[in-house]
Amino acid sequence: MTTSSAEAWDTPLAKVLRPADNQAATEALLTELAHALNHRAEGSPTETSTPVRRVPPERVLLTPEEAGEGLGVGRTTIYALMKSGELESVQIGRLRRIPTSALHEYAARLVQRARNQEA
To answer: How large is the angle between the packed helices 64-71 and 100-118, nearest 10 degrees?
Structure first.
């Protein structure tokens, strides 16, 4: 089964990797929170106000599986990229994690290489 590129970006991980969308969602939730707090301060019943949803913190380090999902490759490919040094990773105890910035940098290098080969 194949997924379209639009569906591939419709995952929780994609929201971490697409900070502009994440920022818009965060701003919307902050607006809702401010509205709810204003109602509470005015003495309005909180049962009728919009429920406030908790926004999980933005992840800065991803597991190899999550990084693979973000790049659209498998876990084995991620480990090979880490071993070759093409994809930066850090060790936390016995765990390996990939900074989200490393995914962005790797993808940018791939795009640049493709552009250079076309020229």
So the answer is: 30
Structure tokens at 93: 């105890």
Q: State the pTM of this model.
A: 0.54
Two structure tokens written together for 82: 């880490």
Query: How far apart (Å, rounded) are the C-alpha atoms in residues 54 and 58?
Result: 12
Query: Domain spans of the chain?
Result: 1-58, 59-119
Distance CA 27, CA 9 (A): 20
Full pLDDT tens readout for the chain, 119 residues: 555 555 555 555 555 555 555 677 777 777 888 887 877 766 655 555 567 788 878 889 999 999 999 999 999 999 999 999 999 999 999 999 999 999 999 999 999 999 999 87
Return the HEC string of the chain: CCCCHHHHCCCHHHHHHCHHHHHHHHHHHHHHHHHHHHHHHCCCCCCCCCCCCCCCCCCCEECHHHHHHHHCCCHHHHHHHHHHCCCCCEEECCEEEEEHHHHHHHHHHHHHHHHHHHC
